[in-house]
Write the C-alpha cells for this entry.
Amino acid sequence: MTPRAAAMAPDDRRRAILAVLVPLIVERGGDVSTREIARAAGIAEGTIFRVFPDKKSLMLAAAEEAINPADGQAAFDEAMAGAEGLRAKVVVATERVLDRMRLTMSVMMAARQHLMAAHEAGEHQRTGPDGKPAFGPPPFVMQAQEDLHRRLTGLFEPHRDELAVEPSVAAVALRSLIFGASRPELGMTPALTPDQIADLLLDGVRRRDS
C-alpha cells in the first residue's frame, strides 16, 4: 500500500509532485499514468487530484515547470555567483539555457496532446492589436521568455561599461545565439558549444588583424 502522504499546503504539494513528474516524463514520456506518478512521489493517487483537477492540468503544469521552474531565478542567481567575469557568466548561462531547452523539448513533446486540446478549447486565445481574437503560445511560454530576457539582461547589467550596446540588446543577442545553436529537429548540426557562443557574442566573427 502507498503510505499516507504527510500533510502539505496545496502549493507545496503541487511543487513536490512536479519535482517528481518532470524527470519522470523525460524518462517515460507522456503515457506515464497518474498511478505511476503517485508511486514515484510516495503518495496516494487521489492526492494528485486534490491539487490538479485532471491529467491535462497536470501535464500542462509539468510543461510550465519544465520551461520556467518555480526556483529558476534563485538557481540562476546561484550559478552566476560562482562565475567570475563576463565571459564566464555567458558560458554558464548558455549551458543552463541549453540544458533547459533539451528538458523542455522532451516534456513539451510528451504534453503535446494536452497542449493541443487546450488550444482547440480556446484556452490560449487572447485579443490581438486589432481587437480581434488571436491565438499564440500558452501564456506560461510567453512568461518564460519574459523571465529569461530579464535574467539575461541582469547578467549583462553589472558589465554595462564593457558593452557597446545596452544590456537588454546584449540579452537578445545571446538568447538568439542560444536558441539557434541547437535545433536537431531542423537538421541543424553540428551545434555551437557554450564556449563558441560566448566567443561569437563577445568577439564577433571577423578576424582582427594587428
